[in-house]
Design goal:
Elements lengths: L9 E9 L8 H10 L3 E10 L10 H14 L3 E4 L5 H11 L2 E3 L1 H12 L3 H16 L25 H36 L4 E6 L5 H9 L16 E7 L3 E7 L9 H6 L1 H8 L3 E7 L5 H14 L7 E6 L10 E4 L5 E5 L8 H14 L1 E8 L1 H13 L3 E6 L5 E8 H10 L11
Parallel strand pairs: 1-2, 1-3, 3-4, 5-7, 5-8, 8-9, 9-11
Antiparallel strand pairs: 6-7, 10-11, 12-14, 13-14
Function: GTPase that associates with the 50S ribosomal subunit and may have a role during protein synthesis or ribosome biogenesis.
Family: Belongs to the TRAFAC class OBG-HflX-like GTPase superfamily. HflX GTPase family.
Protein name: GTPase HflX
Length: 429
């Protein structure tokens, strides 16, 4: 589809420090991303600016420095640790005479390499197509090229219009297939709800040790490596918790600062496991000096996917890399476990994690006695039956339904938000 330079494995990296807080990125993390993509870094060019330049993102002098570095190192590609506009990418490519990609393009490339399942491949392709659709214009230096020849003359479509139409058609086809995947996942979640099986979802910054912890807890064999975005495809396994019974543990994709919106949208079906979880296990690399910033980045993404209200248990991982840190449970003022310090690699503190999960799941249950008038009985009773949470029910002489239900707090909150009637008005003591 594109008339463009061939991409390569030898890169010049560009990292600019901005005084604006929102533009800030981390150089060491950028180098890890490049390494995870399998690209060789030939030179890192850094600089400082107040704000991005509209033409080259960097100033004219820095742009010339980048072009000279490409020539001197015989680089195949220039990678920016920032989001570039299509015009900036096009201008830099013309100057450097090689391909230029930004942070979003780099992350998309890593995701494309890591996806293993059919669903994962569809999600990555969707994100890539959405990203490419804004950059189609740079793929052609002859934007008015039209089909010609006998029987094909006339206004027709320009090549650019054809490409845009093909992209739109492909995006629609992928969305239809992902909708089927989403319905299949929804059926699985409904089945677990009917059986009252709680779901726990691992979330956290990329490379925090989620998959290693997942393998330790479930004795599974999920791919785990010391690299960014080692896990893309969600994996679900059953675990047994004392006094609770069976629970489902889900391992999900790692988050990162300024995670591209196209990726968040594309991975909606996968991230729904996080939205619908009873408890989030927020895994944190305690050995990372900037773990607090990583926590904020994860919380930002959770807010973006409407999962910020799901109860969360912090798991401080990799204590084997720290001195004077021992496995322990930290509790809040009410005695509820909030943080567990563990080492997924050595297994230290895993028993405490199970203990904390058992306590949290037990404390997250609510029981309500409701008196429901006849006009609301059909729908509300049907919902309770779908959730398999009815303990007892009977009718009073006035025809009101007297029903006792027991469910997770988060499920009750979701019902209250979803129903037009105020369920709290039906609660009787």
């Amino acid at each position: 589809m594109f008339d463009r330079y061939e991409s390569g494995e030898r890169a010049v990296l560009v990292h600019i420090n901005f005084t604006q807080e929102g533009e800030w990125e981390d150089l060491s993390e950028f180098e890890m991303l490049v390494s995870s993509a399998g690209v060789s870094s030939l030179q890192v060019i850094t600089g400082s600016r107040q704000s991005p330049h509209p033409k080259y993102f960097v100033g004219d002098g820095k742009a010339q420095e980048i072009a000279s570095a490409v020539t001197a190192n015989e680089a195949d590609i220039v990678i920016f640790n920032h989001a570039l506009s299509p015009a900036q990418e096009r201008n830099l490519e013309q100057l450097c005479q090689c391909r230029v990609i930004d942070r979003t393009g780099l992350i998309l490339d890593i995701f494309a390499q890591r996806a293993r399942t059919h669903e994962g491949n569809l999600q990555v392709e969707l994100a890539q197509l959405r990203h490419i659709s804004t950059r189609l214009i740079r793929g052609w230096t002859h934007l008015e090229r039209q089909k010609g020849g006998i029987g094909l003359r006339g206004p027709g479509e320009t090549q650019l219009e054809t490409d845009r139409r093909l992209l739109r058609d492909r995006i629609k086809a992928i969305l239809r297939r992902l909708e089927k995947v989403s319905k299949q996942r929804e059926q699985g979640r409904r089945s677990r709800n009917r059986k009252e099986i709680p779901t726990l979802s691992l979330v956290g910054y990329t490379n925090a040790g989620k998959s290693t912890l997942f393998n330790r807890i479930t004795e599974a064999d999920v791919y785990a490596a010391d690299q960014l975005f080692a896990t893309l495809d969600p994996t679900l396994r059953k675990i047994e918790l004392a006094d609770i019974g069976t629970a489902i543990l889900a391992d999900t994709v790692g988050f990162i600062r300024h995670l591209p919106h196209d990726l968040v949208a594309a991975f909606k079906a996968t991230l729904q496991e996080t939205q619908e979880a009873d408890i989030l296990l927020h895994v944190i690399d305690a050995s990372d000096d900037r773990f607090r910033e990583n926590i904020e980045a994860v919380n930002d993404v959770l807010a973006e996917i409407d999962a910020d209200e799901v109860p969360t248990l912090l798991v401080m991982n990799k204590i084997d890399s720290l001195e004077h840190q021992t496995p322990r449970i930290e509790r809040d003022d009410e005695g509820i476990p909030r943080t567990v310090w563990v080492s997924a690699m050595s297994g230290d503190g895993i028993d405490l994690l199970f203990e904390a999960l058992t306590e949290r799941l037990a404390s997250e249950m609510v029981e309500h006695h409701l008196q429901i008038p006849p006009e609301y009985q059909g729908r509300i009773r049907s919902l309770f039956f779908q959730m398999n949470c009815i303990k007892q029910e009977e009718y009073d002489p006035e025809g009101n339904l007297l029903i006792t239900v027991r469910m997770q707090k988060i499920d009750w909150s979701r019902l209250e938000k979803r129903e037009e009637a105020d369920l709290a008005d039906f609660i009787v003591t």
